[in-house]
Amino acid sequence: MSNSRRKFLKSLTGAGSLMLLGNKKPAHSTIPKVNPDQFGVLVDTTRCVGCRQCEKECNSINEDLPPRAAEDFKDKSVFNERRRMDYRSYTVVNRYESVNKSDNPVYAKFQCMHCLYPACVSACIVGAFTREKDGAITYDAWKCIGCRYCMAACPFQAPAYEFANVLTPQVRKCTFCFNTRLSKGQIPACVESCPMEVMKFGKRTELIQNANEKISKNPGRYVSHIYGEKEVGGTSWMYLSNIPFQAIDLPKLGYHPAPGYTEPIQHAIFKWFLPPLGVYATLGGIWWFLSSKKKKEQSDA
Ligand code: SF4
Ligand code: SF4
Ligand code: SF4
Q: Is 284 among the domain residues?
């Protein structure tokens, strides 16, 4: 075997073996410390009237989303079913019955919660999600391999997948307006556009103080709990409600950060998952070696 062939095979099998073994320590395995001054949003669902202006503004600021006519957002028939975020929408507003059926319905807006300990970051095996220091969880489509572990890991069913895009499907979720507005010193578009001031943007610690004041100064108006203050270790987007949170589709979750649950899965995946490129590199090397050997035998004959 010539030296160059040996070197080539060595490099192929070396690369393959490395990938087959997997990088046991993904770059994002260390969960960053939470910045106490990070931003957040407090959503007071008791103020929401279901006008869907927030959905409209989100769609218009995010050029990645398919453009939609303004008329689409005036359609109130969407409230006849419970919607989830999808490839066309980073945020959706749903309608719920109040506990006392004669009272006005309750409306609640949902988007990615921008968790303090995000399960999507922990679950993504290629590090396509990043926790920015101000609290936003961002996504890099270039790194994404479409495995959708993030979707399985998210306790809020926030990430959606572009199943309709056959060639370049991406995961879609609220960006916290990180590139479009936050990085320019502006508040998120949905927060700014809401005519009812349902959402308050600010430092997360101050929002918690503000929420506690609202609860104590308005007895009977709110359930005495700030959803997201502690759930799954805390979320940047937090909620107040006058009906139980589970009645507005916010799941009952423990206070333990979700990555505590998903990291073992991720690490198991890293241990046993055979990345296709590693397999192909190794198989390619074997095929190349065997076919060269056969050719040599034929030419020697
Ligand atoms: S809500 Fe889901 S997608 Fe958003 S940061 Fe948390 S785990 Fe990630
Ligand atoms: S923060 Fe920005 S991306 Fe997220 S729902 Fe609001 S407008 Fe949409
Ligand atoms: S813009 Fe404000 S009031 Fe209108 S649906 Fe959105 S959160 Fe509710």
A: no
Cα of 180 from ligand 1 centre, angstroms = 19
Q: Is residue 75 part of a domain?
A: yes
Range of the domain at 103: 39-265
**∠ CA 42-44-47, rounded to 5°:** 145
What's the pLDDT at 98? 87
Find the length of the chain: 301
CA distance 127 to 106: 37
Model confidence, pTM? 0.79
195: helix, coil or strand? coil
Q: How many domains does the chain have?
A: 1
**How far away, in angstroms, is 168 Cα from ligand 1 center?**
22
DSSP-derived 3-state class of residue 128: coil
Residue 73 host element (H or E): none
Query: Is residue 274 situated within a structural domain?
Result: no
Burial of 203 (0-12, 13-18, 19+ CB in 10 A): middle
Site of tokens 């009272």: 103
State the CB neighbour count (10 A cutoff) for residue 226. Answer: 22
Residues touching ligand 1 (Cβ under 6 Å) are 112-115, 118-120, 137, 154, 156, 158-159, 173
Average pLDDT score over residue span 64-72: 94
Task: Indicate the SS3 state at residue 235.
Answer: strand
Q: Is residue 103 part of a domain?
A: yes
CATH number at residue 231: 3.30.70.20
> Taking the CA atoms of the chain, what radius of gyration do you get in angstroms?
24
> Is 54:109 a contact under the CB 8 Å cutoff?
yes
pLDDT in tens, 210-239: 999 999 999 999 999 999 999 999 999 999
* Planar angle of CA 238, 243, 244, nearest 5 degrees: 70
For residue 300, how many other CB atoms are within 10 A of its CB?
A: 6
